[in-house]
Write a structure and sequence with these properties.
This protein is of the alpha/beta class. Helices cover about 40% and strands about 15% of the residues. The protein contains 13 helices and 16 strands. Strands 2-10-9-6-5-3-4 form a seven-stranded mixed β-sheet, sandwiched between helices. A three-stranded antiparallel β-sheet has the order 8-7-13, with no helix packed on it. The longest helix has 19 residues.
Length: about 375
């Protein structure tokens, strides 16, 4: 049996065909497929605007910049996330402030958010861990009370729903960020997007994606310039995505619901097989959400059992993972004065017990059964 990764892309001949069409076309980048992909994301989620970029990290960065995050501005975030979430705040000169999680969903706890708000707080960045949406209605209410921006890190959650609306609709937030890395709900290879209902944020995001340059004569500072004229009006970045990536994204987006359906089927098989195994805590799904099930995270009896199960699975060809090391534990963060002694107790507890099992649409029934048998064997 081949090694089984925890996540993997699902590429078929239709995807390949769409990419090849673009490779044979006149436009490899900065062409019409990008807007077509953005429009498709808006149609799927219900957002008004989308800006596709080169990665989820790039999307987080320009979302923070668009929200006005600057020197020493504080952004409250969960520590159980990939480092890019917090890094995007640092890129802007801001300060990530880590707030503890809910024990059941592993999402940021709104009650803990309230404790972390200070006069320097500028934004909240809820992370929809494993594809399970945060309590966005409550988080949005906190943001309104304190006049804070909300940037949803939904890199795990394309296709998820919260109280009847798609994640990405920005019903309770200013912006939502997606990732299209190969292990995510759909892939463009690398890639990401920011969705928003604000025209001003949208225009800001467009400029930041492409060097801060505009070619719109209505916005030129210099009037009466030649047709060739363009202006760099702010310091932006080359965060552009290609047309062939967007062609792949469009093809993948058509299959997103079927991908999530298959993820949920695998979730059901795991839950049924493992629910009676003593000492295991299975991931939850609240009744008011529809998770995209990006990853399936077990919790073991204790840290010794975590190590035993993790190493046993890896030695058996099952490439399990642990999501995530609390961000403030990384050497870069722990060496910064702001994070000396920072500790979120429930995040620490979760990290000491968690193991991520394989979960992706192409996972076969024999592979699922093999994973289950090994988990049962190692959990004794």
């Amino acid at each position: 049996m081949r090694p089984i990764p925890y996540g993997r892309q699902a590429i078929d001949t239709a995807d390949i065909r769409e990419v090849v069409k673009i490779l044979k076309s006149d436009w490899l980048t900065q062409g019409p497929k990008i807007k077509e992909f953005e429009d498709a994301l808006c149609k799927y989620t219900g957002a008004k605007y989308a800006v596709a970029v080169s990665s989820g990290t790039a999307a987080l960065h320009i979302a923070c910049l668009s929200a006005g995050i600057g020197h020493r501005d504080e952004v409250i975030i969960s520590p159980i996330t990939f480092a890019a979430s917090a890094n995007s705040v640092l890129y802007c000169g801001g300060k990530p402030v880590f707030s503890d999680i809910q024990e059941d969903t592993v999402n940021i706890n709104p009650l803990e958010i309230r404790k972390k708000i200070s006069g320097k707080t500028r934004a909240l960045m809820p992370v929809h861990f494993a594809g399970h949406p945060c309590d966005m209605e409550e988080i949005g209410g906190i943001a309104r009370k304190y006049n804070l921006a909300v940037i949803e890190d939904a890199c795990h959650a394309l296709g998820a729903e919260y109280k009847g609306s798609k994640i990405g609709a920005c019903k309770y937030s200013d912006m939502t960020v997606f990732s299209f890395h190969p292990v995510k709900s759909i892939t463009t290879g690398e890639g990401g997007a920011v969705l928003t209902n604000s025209k001003s944020f949208y225009e800001k995001l467009l400029g930041l994606r492409a060097h801060g340059i505009t070619k719109d004569f209505n916005k030129f500072k210099k009037k009466g310039a030649g047709f060739w004229h363009y202006e760099m009006q702010e310091l932006g970045f080359n965060y552009r995505i290609t047309d062939f990536q967007c062609a792949l994204g469009l093809s993948q987006l058509k299959k997103l619901d079927s991908f999530i359906k298959r993820r949920r089927e695998i979730r059901d098989i795991y839950n049924e097989a493992l629910k009676m195994v003593s000492g295991l805590v299975l991931p939850v799904e609240k009744e008011y959400v529809h998770s995209s099930w990006h990853i399936y995270c077990l919790r073991l009896k204790n840290s010794a059992m975590q190590k035993k199960v993790y190493e046993g699975l890896r030695n058996s060809g099952i490439l399990a993972q642990v999501h995530y090391i609390p961000v403030y534990r990384h050497p870069y963060y722990s060496n910064l004065p702001d994070y000396k002694g920072v500790k979120c107790p429930l995040a620490e507890k979760y990290y000491s017990l968690a193991v991520t099992l394989p979960l992706f649409p192409g996972l076969t029934v024999p592979e699922i059964k093999y994973v289950i048998s090994k988990v049962k064997e190692l959990s004794v």
